[in-house]
Specification:
- The complex is a heterotrimer of chains A (305), B (276) and C (390).
- Chain A is mainly alpha-helical.
- Chain A has a single domain, classed as MetI-like (MetI-like fold, Orthogonal Bundle), CATH 1.10.3720.
- Chain A has 12 helices and no strands.
- Chain B contains 11 helices and no strands.
- Chain B is an all-alpha fold.
- In chain C, the strands form 3 sheets. In chain C, strands 1, 2, 3, 4, 6, 7, 8, 9 and 12 form a 9-stranded mixed beta sheet that branches. A 3-stranded mixed beta sheet of chain C has the order 5-10-11. A two-stranded parallel ribbon of chain C has the order 13-14.
- Chain C starts with a helix and ends in a 12-residue tail after the last helix.
- Classes of the chains: A mainly alpha (305), B mainly alpha (276), C alpha/beta (390).
- Chains in contact: A-B, A-C, B-C.
């Protein structure tokens, strides 16, 4: 018999090697099954509606018309806004932690901030329902309404709105990017900074000219991480967003995200087209999440060159 | 640029940064404050040990949710730790060649899985066939925990200095002994930290449980029947119109937060002590 | 040495975990768990039933989750629960889906009322409303509380000059079904545009005055939190949350409150003409009845269950439970503002319950096998309970 040569990567040293390979393969099969399941279940919706599933704006279970756009909009609208606000905030906080505060206080403060990331989503949602939403409705919205010439602030609000959801998201994702930046800023070589200071630079200039350029890839990584988290965030958002499919620029209006509509409507979708549409939304959500990670990874690799 | 302008810019930057810190820490403080104040009103012996009562009746507790959370977490770790650790071992110790990166990337797609989609998948794959149960809930939570455990295990193992491996091999130990006893032994603190952090993460997840664990007002008697969980009842009670349930929601939130914060602090303390 | 200690420790940990799981799975005197889901309308009563039944039958636990009638229907069709509760009977599509899988039984289990609750600060007198006014509020034609049509029904009340915030259900709801059934009876425009349905979108005329919430619980909560709002919820929710609700002008022209007498009056006419338990009930309705003291938005609540049960260990328990709620359980209805069933309907139900029997089912598919392999790979079969593996 010919001696069969195992491909090199299958020549593992011993039983543990094979067992661990088996585990990895099992996980890969699991991932494949998950994708398969998502694809199969989404099929009916995609076949029925075709392209209009992505471009239509109607979500009407009675008529049996489903389209994803309002929810894709809601998810991206809230997450992008949240990121735009969280990014500078987390840089600011990280600078305070690394450049301004004495070491021991900074330690304590950064631990406290990491605490927020540890608070479960439901608890933040609970706080959002009973404190944040009423605050938005009674205090914040009236102030913002004075600026109603800006489309962002038009219309009536009940407290449950894109604004409240975005605030909640900002609160939840800022600690994530902050801790990434905190670590990154610590690694900026001291001599670089000291050189700049010696030349008479202000702290702001050191940040702009040394720290930020030096930590570019971490800055990006932080955003990617935070964005991914924001996109998939379900419960806290569901509890305060108002649950109304709504493509609008008005932050004060109620809205809906992909994760929220699945959470709210999945168990009661009584016909297969409805279920299929919701699964399709889940599939889209997963794809967007993976895309964000992938694009981030690509840019990161290019930055590191 | 004039010195004055530069100084002003700097001052503004400092002020804005400090405002940023306040902007984030103030709500946090408020959240913790409200959870403690509101939650404390709910917590008493009955709350922690009794089953819930029908709506409109005063009293009752959340022991069903506490048991449910314990069972779910235990099951999830049981399901996800072995495959997760083994995969981490493969990726760091035994994997050879380009294939390792491909395998790692595929498994990493799992880490991008939104929690609600994990619940959705658990429903279509498990619940349809076997019904709502602790098992299906644990399956959903495992989808979230596994990539985490894989990643932290792999990193923990990679951080073990090569000298340890070389020493073991030089002594004539087979690779599996080197890995299991020496390498894993050295990586153990970090692996445990990873598992603890994964636990802290999934303990607070309610989205995957919405379509799987289903909720239950009874003690846990079987892994194949529905169970309740702390994050689940927080959600259900919060959106109900009963004041008594709202108070219980805060109480449950306090319990949950204490558990999560304890785990996080334990990990931090543990990491400091074993000098990582 | 160190190595041995670690092995021992690891083994101990594993044993403890397995022991703990094993122990928790030992059935304590063979507890049988029945799972149900559906209507939030009946949740207060169902919850009371579950608790009282369990006191009398310690070895049976009832787990009912309030996810909306639509959810209950989905669950019983999917086979993920043992019974469902719904205020809306199965419509034509659902009925044919259901009968494709077996014989579905409708058991009317109580009668309840949908009330029009509202939140007007500082208004103590109860409002009087009529069907056409309610319909026009929900169609967006009446937009302010002090609209002349509302005023003329309430001549001695000072109505505020505020926008009406209109609240509806966001989920597939039997309560919505009953409400829209009523609106279809009292408003031709409603009947021709939206009709009777478990879920609907606000007409454009509502604009941003409309809110949706999940479950009777959610709508109640929204009304409580938003001044000048109006919404439709089950009677018990309004009472338990101390919300004001309107007195309604019924078909006979009388102003009626919602209580067990008026609700019972609405149901009386229907008792003779109910369909067979296993037939379709899609045309059964007791809204807008002409009986003088009938409350106009009343409805049966149905328990839906299959005659054929796959799990033979649960059958006796299931029958016991269904029998109990049809007979002893009815005593708990009145205190919670639901109407107890008359004897004739109880008998009808008992006959149908008696027909529940066991059946075995075999089905397989490639994905089944694949997922079965994966599931059993990852879960050691620690259980005494057998998985219904094909």
């Amino acid at each position: 018999m010919n001696e069969r040569k195992l491909p090199r990567f299958l020549k593992l040293d011993d039983w543990l090697g094979y067992l661990s390979l088996l585990a990895s393969v099992a996980l890969i099969i699991l991932v494949l099954i998950l994708f398969y399941e998502l694809a199969i279940q989404s099929l009916q919706a995609l076949k029925t509606f075709g392209i209009s599933f992505f471009t239509g704006t109607e979500w009407n279970p009675v008529k049996g018309v489903f389209s994803a756009l309002p929810f894709i909009y809601g998810t991206l609208f809230t997450s992008t806004l949240a990121i735009l606000v969280a990014f500078p905030i987390s840089i600011g906080i990280a600078i305070v932690l690394t450049e301004i505060l004495p070491r021991n206080i900074a330690e304590i403060l950064s631990t406290i901030i990491e605490l927020i990331a540890a608070i479960p989503s439901v608890v933040i949602g609970l706080w959002g329902i009973f404190y944040l939403a009423p605050m938005v409705r009674d205090s914040l919205a009236p102030i913002l309404s004075t600026l109603s010439f800006i489309p962002l602030f038009q219309g009536r609000t009940f407290g449950y709105s894109y604004l409240t959801a975005t605030l909640v998201l900002i609160l939840m994702i800022t600690p994530i990017s902050t801790s990434v930046y905190n670590e990154a800023f610590k690694y900026v070589p001291n001599d670089l900074k000291e050189a700049m200071y010696a030349l008479g630079a202000t702290r702001y200039e050191v940040v702009r000219k040394v720290i930020i350029p030096y930590t570019k890839s971490s800055l990006l990584a932080g955003i990617i991480l935070a964005y991914g988290r924001a996109i998939g965030e379900t419960l806290a958002v569901t509890m305060v967003i108002g649950n109304k499919p709504n493509i609008t620029l008005s932050l004060l209006a109620p809205g809906y995200t992909m994760a929220s509509v699945i959470a709210n409507e999945f168990l009661e979708a009584t016909n297969t087209l409805y279920v299929s549409s919701l699964v399709a939304l889940g599939f889209i959500l997963l794809i967007i999440s993976l895309l964000v990670n992938y694009i981030g990874g690509v840019i990161l690799r290019r930055l590191e060159k | 640029m004039k010195m004055r302008t530069r100084k002003i810019k700097d001052k503004i930057f400092t002020i804005v940064s400090i405002l940023a810190v306040i902007f984030i820490t103030l709500p946090l403080a408020h959240i913790i404050y409200t959870v403690v104040i509101n939650g404390a009103q709910a917590i008493n012996l009955e709350f922690l040990t009794k089953l819930p009562k029908p709506p409109g009746e005063i009293g009752g507790g959340i022991i069903n949710a506490i048991e449910g959370t314990a069972v779910l977490v235990g099951l999830t770790l049981l399901i996800s730790f072995p495959p997760g650790l083994l995969t981490g071992i493969y990726l760091s110790e035994y994997g050879k060649g380009k294939h390792v990166n491909i395998i790692r990337d595929i498994i990493n797609t799992l880490s991008g899985l939104p929690s609600i989609v994990a619940g959705l998948l658990a429903y279509t794959i498990i619940v349809i066939k076997y019904g709502f149960s602790a098992m299906s809930g644990a399956f959903a939570l495992s989808l979230l925990a596994i990539p985490y455990i894989v990643r932290t295990s792999e990193e923990a193992i990679k951080m073990v200095p090569n000298e340890i491996r070389e020493a073991g091999l030089a002594l004539g130990l087979p690779k599996w002994k080197v890995t299991l006893y020496l390498v894993l032994g050295a990586a153990r603190p970090r692996i445990i930290a990873g598992v603890l952090l994964a636990t802290a993460r999934i303990i607070g997840e309610a989205a995957p449980l919405l379509f799987t664990a289903f909720g239950s007002p009874h003690h846990v008697t079987s892994l194949f029947e529905p169970v309740s969980a702390l994050p689940l009842i927080i959600f259900i009670y919060a959106i109900s119109p009963y004041k008594d349930w709202h108070t219980k929601a805060w109480g449950a939130a306090l319990v949950l937060m204490i558990i999560v914060l304890t785990i996080n602090f334990a990990v931090k303390y543990y990491m400091k002590r074993t000098r990582i | 040495m160190a190595i041995d200690k670690k092995i021992i420790l690891g083994v101990i940990v594993i044993i403890v975990i397995i022991a703990g799981v094993w122990y928790s799975m030992q059935p304590r005197e063979e507890v049988i768990a029945l799972n149900g889901a559906g209507s939030s309308f009946i949740y207060p009563l169902m919850s009371k039933w579950a608790s009282e039944f369990h006191k009398a039958n310690k070895n049976i636990t009832i787990n009912y989750q309030s996810i909306g009638s639509g959810g209950g229907i989905r669950a019983i069709l999917d086979g993920t629960v043992d019974f469902a509760a719904s205020d809306a009977p199965l419509n034509a599509d659902e009925y044919s889906n259901a009968t494709a899988k077996g014989t579905i039984i409708h058991l009317p289990i109580t009668i309840g009322a949908v009330v029009i609750a509202y939140n007007i600060p500082d208004l103590e007198k109860r409002l009087i409303l009529s069907g056409d006014v309610i319909a026009d509020i929900y169609l967006g034609h009446i937009t302010k509380w002090n609209d002349p049509r509302i005023q003329e029904l309430n001549p001695d009340v000072t109505l505020p000059n505020e926008d009406i915030i209109v609240v509806k259900r966001s989920d597939g709801s039997g309560t919505t079904y009953v409400f829209t059934d009523y609106l279809s009876h009292v408003s031709d425009e409603w009947k021709n545009t939206i009709g009777k349905t478990k879920i609907f979108d606000f007409p454009g005329t509502i604009g941003d005055r409309g809110l949706s919430a999940k479950g009777n619980e959610g709508v109640t909560g929204v009304i409580l939190q938003n001044p000048y709002s109006i919404g439709y919820i089950e009677l018990t929710y309004a009472i338990q949350s101390e919300l004001n609700f309107a007195l309604l002008k019924n078909r006979a022209g009388n102003i009626v409150d919602a209580n067990t007498t008026t609700i019972g009056a609405a149901a009386e006419g229907a008792y003779e003409s109910l369909p067979e338990s296993t037939a379709s009930w899609e045309n059964v309705t007791i809204v807008d009845q002409s009986t003088p003291n009938a409350y106009p938005i009343s409805s049966f609540v149905y328990v839906l269950v299959y005659e054929e049960q796959k799990d033979s260990t649960k059958i006796e328990a299931l029958k016991k439970w269904l029998t109990w709620i049809t007979t002893d359980g009815q005593d708990y209805a009145d205190p919670l503002h639901y109407v107890p069933l008359p004897e004739s309907i109880r008998q009808k139900n008992l006959v149908a319950i008696n027909n529940i029997h066991s059946t075995s089912e075999v089905q397989a598919s490639s994905l089944d096998t694949l997922t079965t392999i994966l599931v059993t790979l990852m879960i050691k079969p620690l259980s005494r309970y057998s998985l219904p593996i094909a």
